[in-house]
Amino acid sequence: MSAGRFEEARALLQPPLEQTPDSVDALYMSAVCERYLKRPDKAAALLKTLKTVSPDFGRAFQEEGHLARDAGKQDQALSAYAQAVRANPGLEASWRGQEQILRAMGRDAEAAQAKVQAERLAALPRELLAATNFLHEGKLLKAENLCRRFLQNNPKHVEGMRLLADVGARMGALDDANFLLESAIAFEPDNIQLRLDYIQLLRKRQKFEAALEQAKALYDRNPENPLFQSHYAIESLQTGDFEKALALFDKVLETLPNDPATLTSRGHALKTWGRRDDAIRSYRAAFAAKPDQGDAYYGLANLKTYKFTDDEVAAMRAEEARSDISYQDRYHLCFALGKAFEDRDDIETAFAYYARGNELKRLKSAYRTEDMDKEFRAQMEVCTRELFKARTGAGFDAIDPIFIVGLPRAGSTLLEQILASHSQVDGTLELPNILSLSQSLRGRRRVAGASAYPKVLEELPMEKFAEMGKAYIEETRIHRAGAPFFIDKMPNNFRHIGLIHLILPDAKIIDARREPMACCFSGFKQLFAEGQEFTYGLEEIGRYYRGYVELMRHWDEALPGRILRVQHEDVLDDLEGQVRRMLAYCGLPFEGACLDFHKTDRSVRTASSEQVRQPINKSGVDQWRRFEPYLDPLKTALGPALTEYRS
Question: Are 582 and 564 contacting, i.e. CB atoms less than 8 angstroms apart?
């Protein structure tokens, strides 16, 4: 295309940009035009804006790579191209760019790897290459439509099936994705990428034993392969086999001694297992190997009891200030820096970093308060006393589950640790099974269509509820150690108490509640591994807490006497009284070990893991007050729940 045509294209893009200044596509295409018109400063300015709007837009990094390459800045170009393919592995030009630079540097082995990736993409049918880019840019409906059209004419094309399965998994259509992957594996049983995708999908479907079997099968093919070792380690962690996982991570590190991802994962495993000092060493080794390894820095912050050194704070600030670090590393560093400055009583700086980290997370979030409000209303409209009366006798006869629900950071891990210290109770983790079941009941949601769930609960035959309850008990058995009772402490299950009651009518349900300002601000400060997207904004989390209080009030009315509410502050004020109250509700005899919960040796997989290994203390009750000047949006969003949360 001639320079004149690029000038014309740039002019045509100007009105859309003026109308929608944050249009990702218009900003990107404008930057491309400016580069071809030899106006690198203008191109760079557009890319800076683009990365603010969409921090992990791979083609923005690719354009930065092209600009640096054209300016003769080979190191900078190589870094930008690497960032591009981390965000979007489907960018052939970035692989080609890396290959050329690495070859010129004499790094032939790395150049060869980049060439393999580029050639793999070049060999893809045009439709699938476009679908790959749409997939990694979050344009899932476009990716789905392209894949489906392609597969209509090429029904046994394995890569097309794999891509459509990936789209399905990201959209929550897990059963469809499973069928596609199993079919693709039948066509190409030795395709390693299919196997790796299948393991990940099985984990999403809570098929932990099956995922472990698949990971072990890959490992058995080649026990010296670090990739297979790593996946086997991760699946071993999911099933609670920490010794096996750590041994495998150590094997990876024998081959790749400074691999930051492995060192970080090893730190997470050690933290969960209660080996705090070993976890700290592993995290430190990770960012010593890769100074911008934000996940490792946040791993230290997430210990809650760790205090960063001055040198570590300076290093984090320097890395976060760079323009070329990844989106994920940046928000991890922001949350870690928030904790570091909070510990130093520099509240203004701490809040600025917390706010920046939340803003970054919110940019990529699909969460909308209005949608959640509709979900809350639907539960209240469908799951009524009348429904439960009509379904009397439904469900699976099991007394062993104890559900602890509420909001994250409300004290649920403390309640779990107390109950799991009882000889008849197994602690597990935040089991995703109920959320997965609710998702499967929604049906295939159309773009503007309504969800089938919870309305479908009025239509299902009685035997279906028993079937679902039995499946829940069987699928969660892998997390148990043989005690008569077990705990499922997924907080968000409060949205599905109607479903829980229908499939497991004898289950115990404990609502862990905490004063709203403390609870919500603690959630705002926390970077969650996944989900909990309502926490990434003060207004969002305030509205969510308000909706939670209203929905729990509805459950109290629809299921009178079935739910035990435990106020966190009451536990801190009267531990023994609240412990006896919970045990009585669960039908369990009193045991003194529940009062000495901090001495219980078990893995804890939440942000409070270190805190519940210490005796009761009230140090966190009023921590939010130091930030009060910044929290007016939260108070407003909470509305009546700010003062009426106990009613």
Answer: yes
As a whole number of Å, the end-to-end CA separation of the chain is 68
Separation of alpha carbons 288 and 197, rounded Å: 31
Rounded-to-integer distance, Cα 466 and Cα 474, Å = 12
pLDDT digits (tens, 9 = 90+) for 89-142: 999 999 999 999 999 999 999 999 999 999 999 999 999 999 999 999 999 999
For 470-508, write each residue's pLDDT tens digit.
999 998 998 898 999 999 999 999 999 999 999 999 999
How far apart are the C-alpha atoms of 221 and 628, rounded to whole Å?
Answer: 57
Segment among 8-22, 398-412, 432-446, 588-602 with least mean pLDDT: 432-446
Name the strand (E) or helix (H) holding 390: helix 385-390
Please give the pLDDT value at position 82.
94
Q: Using CA atoms, how far apart are residues 151 and 397, in angstroms rounded to an integer?
A: 45
Q: What is the pLDDT of residue 614?
A: 63
Assess whether the previous peptide bond of 454 is cis (omega < 30° from 0): yes
Summarised one tens digit per residue, pLDDT across range 578-621 is 999 999 999 999 999 999 988 876 455 444 444 545 667 676 67
Query: Within 71-191, where are the H helices?
Result: 74-87, 92-104, 108-122, 126-136, 140-153, 158-171, 174-187
How far apart CA 492 and CA 331 sit, in angstroms, is 24
What does the block give as tokens for 525?
Answer: 């400060």
CA distances from 60 to 27, 43, 245, 287 (A): 9, 10, 37, 26
pLDDT band at 174 (very low <50, low <70, confident <90, very high): confident
Helix (H, G, I), strand (E, B) or coil at 124: coil
Q: In whole angstroms, what separates CA 594 from the centre of its chain?
A: 31
Higher pLDDT, 412 or 3: 412
Per DSSP, the three-state class of 395 is coil
DSSP SS3 for 222: coil
Cα–Cα dist 428/603, whole Å: 9
pTM above 0.85, yes or no: yes
Determine how β-strand 401-406 pairs with β-strand 485-488.
parallel
Neighbours of 424 (CB within 10 A): 16
Alpha carbon distance 450, 442 (integer Å): 9
pLDDT band at 162 (very low <50, low <70, confident <90, very high): very high
Are 279 and 267 in contact by the 8 Å Cβ rule? The answer is yes
Q: In whole angstroms, what is the distance from residue 314 CA to residue 163 CA? A: 42
CA dihedral 147, 148, 152, 158 (to 10 degrees): 50
CA atoms within 13 A on the CB side of 472: 34
Q: What is the C-alpha to C-alpha distance for residues 129 and 147, in angstroms, rounded to an integer?
A: 10
Torsion of Cα atoms, 221 then 224 then 230 then 235, to 10°: 40
d(CA 271, CA 289): 20
Distance CA 222, CA 101 (A): 32
Question: 640: buried, middle or exposed (CB in 10 Å: 19+, 13-18, 0-12)?
Answer: exposed
Query: Pick from 422, 404, 421: which is nearest to 413 by CA?
Result: 404
As given in the structure block, the two tokens for residue 646 are 């106990």
Residue 371: Cβ-neighbour burial (10 angstroms; 0-12, 13-18, 19+)? exposed
